[in-house]
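Complex 360.
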Amino acid sequence: MRRFTVAALALATIAVAGSAQADDGPCVEWREAGLIDGLTCTGVDRGVVIAPTSSGKDYAGIFPIAFERFAQVFAPTDQKIALVVQPEVSKELASALAADGYKALPWVDGEARAAMLKASIVKQIEAQTASLPEAQRAAVSEQALAKANASAPAIADPVIEAGSIAHEIGHLLFNSYFDGAEPGSTDGTPRYGSRSPDWLDEAAAVALENETLTRSRYANARAAFAADGTVLPIPVQTYLTMDHPSLRAAQAIKGRGGEGAKAVSLSGDEAKAFLEASGGNPVVFYRQTRLFIDFLTERSGNPRILFSIAKAYRDGGDLAGWLAQSGGENGLPTTLDGLETEFEAWARTTLAQDPADEPA
Ligand SMILES: [Zn+2]
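Predicted structure with zinc ion bound:
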């Protein structure tokens, strides 16, 4: 018997190796086309990871978790994702990915982010110190870099990075659900997410974040509550109809990025301008979204409550209409006013609790 087991195991190993080879199929095609020179390309379940050889991180591990979470909160999806660990995806690679059914997710890893930040600071200093002698310029530059590094270390915590990538995967999967797999022939203006309202786009993304990122959203909300009693920083009616606070700035940056998909990474000055242009603080939008998801899910006892609401929007409805029709049967109010009152009360109780008492 033992011999047969060993033989079966050997066969299984070959089968696994064989299928992994098959999954890398598009990689071979893209490599032969010269689209991924100098990069590794790894097929994973539902996607592919294209990264610099130096990148030792296990980005592939993020995929099954994010897709499983999407299936739990929304529905299983066939959409494929290509995580491209590069600040820019060339127009040629972007169209090859699209032709093979992948949505591209450009990602700037910590190392590249640090390099971009450094280059941007050096450029600014050089422009500002053009009249100074070379030695002095170098000293100023060095000082500025040290200061920037101390105030915001450019290398991200890998767990936070994994949560952030899952967030972006959530945007792409929801976009695919809401608008269809094709990029959609909308009115031509670039959209941050899908054609759904921004709160729903963001809810789909925040819902896929990992525990660490979720905890940081709560810590943020608790800090605001402790500081000045803020429970819901944005009135619910505004929240449901507003543009994502980074929308306009993100569009401006996309616009200047030229062709192909482009990840956004900003220097200190750019980040400040970005926030000013956005007319608000995106962090506040995220933390209210986290609370809203958890309120809806807890009250309804339905882990797919967002999916139910998203379907209503996709059919041309909105939250007010959904509440009137389905709020009652889901343990929720039937009007937006009622929703605001109950959501506020729930959030107040939740934020007043000791985080140690809470289920993770
Ligand atoms: Zn987002």
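The radius of gyration is 23 Å.
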